[in-house]
């Protein structure tokens, strides 16, 4: 293979890698969100269908362990917070990755992509402009 | 009767009207900013197009905010065309405001107010809105009403995307807004997490066969992909003027729609400027200096020019492009003569682009482009005759003749405009030179004849 095609091949590999990176991050967000929703369902089930004195069976890996309800609820709550944080971290990282991919493909940077959002008050103030 | 009339089939898509510069799609430059002889509707004027291209690149990079450009040249040499070309190549993201010099003279608004509104219309502010939403297809809604009829309702809502499915517990409020929106299984909805507002996006394609008869307003959408709880970011571009109008107290935000915005207090403008600058520093807004195009700029008077001088120095200022066809003439509102009818101190701040008259070849090319734009077929000889007319009278007159000759040609059921058609419309419609000639010959028979009284006074 001559130098030209070698170069093209290397470039294409880099682009593919960047694209793959974006896709994996997206999939990761989906997976984490799925987990988050399941945790949320579990929490509401604990709230509505269980009394506090009862013990619940919690699945750890391939084993069920009986656990006090309040303790379980605490555990899930902590897990939820962790998930929220992880998802927002991933989202932040995703932006940089998409930007890098765009740059590699020679596409223009999206306008306003890196702005920080207006607060709810400010949005409400100019809402009549935005809903057009 | 042997021949039966075939009803004419009219193409209803072509109702768009054709403007004088509708054929302009850009400046016709290649990537190295070199002008092509014929491209994007532009013909000739290579030097001025190249200059405009350089300015265009600087505008795109945001380098020359607060600068001004003057396009000067004889009538019919493509000044407005170049400005249109700049507007077209800037794209929809950069604000472009066009106005004619005489538009600012109005009884309801002072001249400077009209100018500052135009200035602020040409500055865009990009802002971002971010919301957490839950987006999914409704699989099932289950609502339990208490047997007594009163009391809290409880329910469950099952939502899914292509990747996952989950159940939400519903409170009283959510149940109410769901039933108000008439949400049922198969709808694709979004729920704003912060406000709990429910929006119906449409029905899922997989449920398209649920009913035989459906209203015209039923919209089918794909089942959403990815995660259920999404973050939605919307980027808006608004102009400074629009923000002004909303915040102008006496008017309220309705003023934007009635069109009559009246005068806006300078305090309001200052507040907005301060707020926007604050947003920019916090990384919440980007300011896009757009382009303000003032055609026939010699119609402005001395006050306006000194206002322009001042306005260009403000830190929120767009790129000002002006066009004029005047030579050395009186500045409006004064007795002083000045080039282009613009005061010297303002001229000093301008980058001046000159346009030159078109050559015969270029005129021919432009007429061809216009024929295509107006959907008129021209025979080779007719084209030559028309070019001749364009050279001897004016390009605008020749362009006018295209559509009129097209009509004459259609009247005689021809498909291609011939020399006779051109001759006919040439005899029907006078050009400027012939019209003045006619005036001179028959001035005695017109009313209020001034040349005659003048000659009587002198005698």
UniProtKB/TrEMBL annotation, chain A:
Key words of the record: Chaperone, Coiled coil, Cytoplasm
One GO CC term, this protein: cytoplasm
Record GO terms (molecular function): unfolded protein binding
Keyword Aminoacyl-tRNA synthetase: no
Source taxon at top rank: Eukaryota
SUPFAM superfamilies given in the database record: Prefoldin
Main location class: cytoplasm
Compartments where located: Cytoplasm
Family statement: Belongs to the prefoldin subunit beta family.
Function summary: May play a role in chaperone-mediated protein folding.
Subunit (UniProt): Component of the PAQosome complex which is responsible for the biogenesis of several protein complexes and which consists of R2TP complex members RUVBL1, RUVBL2, RPAP3 and PIH1D1, URI complex members PFDN2, PFDN6, PDRG1, UXT and URI1 as well as ASDURF, POLR2E and DNAAF10/WDR92.
Protein name (database record): p53 and DNA damage-regulated protein 1
Lineage of origin: Eukaryota, Metazoa, Chordata, Craniata, Vertebrata
TrEMBL record, chain B:
Described purpose of this protein according to its UniProt entry: Proposed core component of the chromatin remodeling Ino80 complex which exhibits DNA- and nucleosome-activated ATPase activity and catalyzes ATP-dependent nucleosome sliding.
Protein name as catalogued: RuvB-like helicase
Pfam families (UniProt xref): TIP49, TIP49_C
GO terms, molecular function: ATP binding; ATP hydrolysis activity; DNA helicase activity
Keywords: ATP-binding, DNA damage, DNA recombination, DNA repair, Helicase, Hydrolase, Nucleotide-binding, Nucleus, Transcription, Transcription regulation
Domain of life: Eukaryota
Source organism of this protein record: Fundulus heteroclitus (Killifish)
Family per similarity comment: Belongs to the RuvB family.
Stretch forming the signal peptide: none
Domain AAA+ ATPase stretches: 65-357
InterPro entries, A to Z: AAA+_ATPase, P-loop_NTPase, RuvB-like, RuvB-like_C, RuvBL1/2_DNA/RNA_bd_dom, TIP49_P-loop
Example of a GO biological process term: DNA repair
Enzyme Commission no: 3.6.4.12
Reactions catalysed: ATP + H2O = ADP + phosphate + H(+)
Main subcellular location of this protein, as a coarse class: other
UniProt entry tagged with the keyword Amino-acid biosynthesis: no
Annotated localization: Dynein axonemal particle; Nucleus
GO CC terms of this entry: dynein axonemal particle; extracellular region; nucleus
Coiled coil: none
């Amino acid at each position: 293979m001559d130098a030209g095609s070698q170069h093209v091949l290397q470039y294409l590999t880099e682009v593919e890698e960047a694209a793959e990176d974006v896709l994996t991050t997206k999939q990761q967000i989906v997976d984490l969100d799925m987990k988050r929703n399941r945790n949320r369902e579990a929490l509401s089930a604990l709230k509505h269908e269980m009394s506090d004195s009862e013990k619940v069976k919690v699945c750890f890996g391939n084993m069920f362990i009986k656990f006090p309800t309040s303790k379980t609820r605490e555990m899930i709550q902590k897990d939820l917070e962790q998930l929220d944080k992880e998802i927002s971290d991933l989202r932040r990282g995703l932006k940089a990755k998409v930007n890098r991919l765009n740059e590699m493909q020679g596409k223009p940077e999206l306008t306003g992509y890196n702005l920080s959002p207006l607060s709810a008050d400010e949005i409400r103030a100019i809402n009549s402009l935005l809903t057009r | 009767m042997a021949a039966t009339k075939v009803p004419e089939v009219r193409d209803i898509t072509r109702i768009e009207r054709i403007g004088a510069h509708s054929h302009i799609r850009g400046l016709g430059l290649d990537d190295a900013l070199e002008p092509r002889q014929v491209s994007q509707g532009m013909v000739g004027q290579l030097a001025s197009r190249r200059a405009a291209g350089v300015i265009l690149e600087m505008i795109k990079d945001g380098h020359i905010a607060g600068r001004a450009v003057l396009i000067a040249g004889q009538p019919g040499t493509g000044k407005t065309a170049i400005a249109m070309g700049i507007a077209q190549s800037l794209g929809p993201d950069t604000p472009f405001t066009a106005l004619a010099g005489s538009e600012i003279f109005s009884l309801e608004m002072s001249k400077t107010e009209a100018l500052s509104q135009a200035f602020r219309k040409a500055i865009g502010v990009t802002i971002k809105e971010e919301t957490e939403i839950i987006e999914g297809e409704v699989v099932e809604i289950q609502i339990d009403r208490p047997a007594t009829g009163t009391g809290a309702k409880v329910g469950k809502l099952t939502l899914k995307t292509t990747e996952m499915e989950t159940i939400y517990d519903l409170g009283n409020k959510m149940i109410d807004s769901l039933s108000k929106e008439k949400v049922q299984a198969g709808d694709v909805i979004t729920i704003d997490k912060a406000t709990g507002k429910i929006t119906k996006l449409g029905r899922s394609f997989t449920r398209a066969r649920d009913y035989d008869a459906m209203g015209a307003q039923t919209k089918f959408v794909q089942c959403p992909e990815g995660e259920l709880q999404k973050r939605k970011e919307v980027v808006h571009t608004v102009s400074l003027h629009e923000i002004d109008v909303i915040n102008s107290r006496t008017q309220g935000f309705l003023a934007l729609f009635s069109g009559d915005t009246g005068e806006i207090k300078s305090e309001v403008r200052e507040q907005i400027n301060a707020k926007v600058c604050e947003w920019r520093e916090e990384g919440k807004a980007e300011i896009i200096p757009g382009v303000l195009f003032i055609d026939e700029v010699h119609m402005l008077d001395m006050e306006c020019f000194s206002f322009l001088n001042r306005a260009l120095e403000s830190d929120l200022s767009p790129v000002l492009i002006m066009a004029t066809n005047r030579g050395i003439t009186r500045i409006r509102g004064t007795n002083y003569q000045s080039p282009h009818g613009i005061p010297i101190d303002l001229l000093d701040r301008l980058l001046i682009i000159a346009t030159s008259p078109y050559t015969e070849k270029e005129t021919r090319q432009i007429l061809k482009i216009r024929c295509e734009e107006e959907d008129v077929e021209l025979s080779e000889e007719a084209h030559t005759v028309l070019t001749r007319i364009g050279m001897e009278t004016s390009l605008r007159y020749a362009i006018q003749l295209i559509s009129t000759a097209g009509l004459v040609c259609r009247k005689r059921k021809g498909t291609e405009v011939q020399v006779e058609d051109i001759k006919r419309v040439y005899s029907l419609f006078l050009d400027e030179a012939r019209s003045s000639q006619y005036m001179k010959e028959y001035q005695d028979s017109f009313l209020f004849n001034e040349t005659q009284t003048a000659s009587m006074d002198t005698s």
